[in-house]
From TrEMBL:
The lineage of its organism: Bacteria, Pseudomonadati, Pseudomonadota, Gammaproteobacteria, Alteromonadales. It comes from Shewanella glacialipiscicola. Gene3D superfamilies: CBS-domain (3.10.580.10). It comes from the Bacteria. InterPro entries: CBS_dom, CBS_dom_sf, Diverse_CBS-Domain. Pfam families: CBS. This is CBS domain-containing protein. Signal peptide: none annotated. SUPFAM superfamilies: CBS-domain pair. Residues 7-70, 83-141 form the CBS domain. Keywords: CBS domain.
Length: 141
């Protein structure tokens, strides 16, 4: 099996020009925990913002500035100061046997899937592996 067999291709991305407030709102309204961040200039993958990282940033702001300033601080915090810029990524034809080991060893929640030009094609999450596991287990019964 390959990455393309389990990846979500309806991935929600966010621009590297967005704010932390934009990302927070997008995660809440779209029900996602991982946002590939793409360049406004050429649409290539430049990073990933996870729900965990976003929440940690918001909590840090809350503790430092208080509830009254939180909205303003979130609005003026560029996403590129919070996102993981050194994110790993996959190609659609990579074998899942390699990818699953990478997830386990690095305790990752997601990996974006890109084409040769680093344009986002999809995303693979730990939930995608759980769904695959369910499918395989159901086939055994």
């Amino acid at each position: 099996m390959k990455v393309s067999d389990i990846m979500s291709d309806q991935v929600i991305c966010i621009s590297d020009g967005a704010s932390l407030k934009d990302a927070h709102h997008l995660m809440q309204t779209r029900g996602v925990r991982h946002l590939p961040v793409i360049s406004e200039i050429d649409g290539t993958l430049v990073g990933v913002l996870t729900h965990k990282k976003m929440i940690a940033s918001v909590m840090s702001m809350l503790n430092k500035y208080g509830q009254g300033a939180l909205d303003r601080k979130e609005r003026y915090t560029p996403i590129d100061t919070v996102m993981d810029k050194d994110c790993q990524h996959l190609t659609a034809d990579e074998p899942l046997t390699v990818v699953v080991e990478y997830f386990i060893e690095n305790k990752l929640g997601c990996l974006p899937v890109v084409d040769a030009d680093k344009k986002v094609l999809g995303i693979v999450t730990s939930s995608d592996f759980i769904k695959l596991c369910r499918t395989l287990l159901q086939q055994k019964n």
